[in-house]
Amino acid sequence: MTNLQLLTFLYLLLFAAFLVNCHSQEKKVYVVYMGEKQNADITVASVQQNLHYPILERVLGSSVAAKESLVYSYGRSFNGFAAKLSDEEVARFSDMEGVVSVLPNTKLQLHTTRSWDFIGLPSDLYVPNSKGEDVIIGMIDSGIWPESHSFSDEGFGPPPAKWRGKCITENNFSCNNKIIGARYYNHEKYYIETDIKSPRDPTGHGTHTASIAAGREVRGASYFGHGKGIARGGAPNARIAVYKACWYYGCSIADILAAFDDAIADGVDVISVSFGVLGFEYTNDPVAIGSFHALRKGILTISSAGNFGPSRAVVSNCAPWLLTVGASTMDRKFITKLVLGNGQIFTGVGVNSIDLNGTQFPLIWGGDAANYSANSFSQTSKGCYPGELNSHKVKGKFVLCEQRSTGIGVLMADGAGIIMPVQTFDEPAFPFSFPATLLTEEEIAKVLGYIRSSEKPVATILVAEAWKDNLAPIVAPFSARGPNMLAPDVLKPDLVAPGAEILAAWSPVASPSIEPTDTRTTNFFINSGTSMSCPHVTGVAANLKTINPTWSPAAIKSALMTTSYMMDPKKARKRKRICLRVWSTQPVNCSEPRTSL
Ligand SMILES: *[C@@H]1O[C@H](CO)[C@@H](O)[C@H](O)[C@H]1NC(C)=O
Ligand SMILES: *[C@@H]1O[C@H](CO)[C@@H](O)[C@H](O)[C@H]1NC(C)=O
Ligand SMILES: *[C@@H]1O[C@H](CO)[C@@H](O)[C@H](O)[C@H]1NC(C)=O
Ligand SMILES: *[C@@H]1O[C@H](CO)[C@@H](O)[C@H](O)[C@H]1NC(C)=O
């Protein structure tokens, strides 16, 4: 796809979203949640449907209307249904006895910082036997790439007897004794070109999270040579059950609840979800509802805290029965150096995988390359957004930009590389499709000073290096912080785990950079987000379940939370004065001496 095609495609997508909205103004999909399932014996979906038709009929007036309206009938693990309803019908269901809540079918986002969060675009754009083979991890995500070496079933026996799930083998998808079950959910039947109608993962996200939780050892794994080593999940001997509820457009509530309904009844031991909503009451939050019924069956749900940090009070998945995971940095940090023509070297944040062999490229500031005929001028073109740059001036050059982006503006104008600002050096590095590095604003100003003071400014960008980060772990800047706005006395997140620059399995058809049109192929990818920290804890929880099969979700959660320890005692001793940043409307000055703490 060319860049223009991509833009056209995005417009079409927006337009399609608009059409869907228009069309559904009369009737939209709602989830009518009715709490505990009524009849313990009902495990067959069709029987449950017969229970829901009469309820729908009462409100909609006819059995034909009821049949047309029903989207999902939940009943394997909890009671409720999804149906197309008008505002008036919603009001009637809301007042009905036995109905806990009626949830509009909004879409949740995966908690990866890849691309959209990174570039600041709104994301709504769219372990018995001692080996753990009896523990089943349910992954509700964007599917899985079953052929990845991380999911090899070599040496695995058949699924444990308790397993009641199934494998949807549509479109060339197959399970094995590692991936023992796979289903997908898309009630809208809305698929874009790159979506695959099967549990297969075209995006890489579900493959990445599943391999972090339960991937087997893969030797020589790397991202184009970077981070080379043995890739291994937290519980390499656990089985994986895949519930694909997330698509290009996000994960809709009706689909998420269908996934939970199945996962619980199928007999998984832990559930992992790397998405969430912010600020929904528990009775309106699909993860809170699903995980509650999971808990009632002794299944712990591990969830991601979200990536809206470093702001406060932005943590998702706040229900007390969830194990909510924030993200920390690791001692490995990828850096990408920029070398100027005058010999100055800047160490930037980046995972540049393109070897320029030291070749120097002319360097230009975006503000000096405005496309005047596109009504751009220096003050706007310095941001390097698409359409702002004059390709005659930018072609074959490195461009210094003063705004963060995917770099598409520079790519469209045939630039050879990009230098962009980053708020702090602590932020995670993202792979780009072309040479790129991110510098702090002071460094950007220095590079600009060089451009201004030299007749022929040139520079080169080196391939990424892995550095030992002695400050790690710290809470990653993007990781959502508490307090919990719904119930401030329930502390959230519960734990942090590594979530920055994590190397794990990837779908070969997915883009290997934040540029969606990047056609290179990789089986491993470096990704950041609480999406990545969550499955780390899932893996550990699965191991605990293996060793202690009788432990309740609360026992597992408690064990994990009460055995965490300070990773760097030296650092703890040095920091004598603790500055507690309490949540308040008054800014806290941490330089001010405090004696009360
Ligand atoms: C099915 O998947 C396998 C493994 O990726 C591949 O080798 C084969 O070509 C695929 N077949 C079709 C019809 O897509
Ligand atoms: C750098 O050198 C490698 C190995 O010689 C080569 O494959 C690559 O194309 C070169 N890169 C550039 C940008 O010339
Ligand atoms: C400047 O912008 C116009 C209008 O978008 C575009 O047609 C033209 O190709 C651009 N010129 C250059 C040199 O990039
Ligand atoms: C914070 O307190 C220190 C010491 O009292 C003072 O020097 C500094 O100006 C204060 N900073 C702000 C932003 O108020």
UniProtKB/TrEMBL annotation:
Residues 1-24 form the signal peptide. It is found in: Secreted. Residues 132-564 form the Peptidase S8/S53 domain. Its main location: secreted. The keyword Kinase does not apply. Keywords: Hydrolase, Protease, Serine protease, Signal. This is Cucumisin 1-2. It comes from Ceanothus thyrsiflorus. The lineage of its organism: Eukaryota, Viridiplantae, Streptophyta, Embryophyta, Tracheophyta.
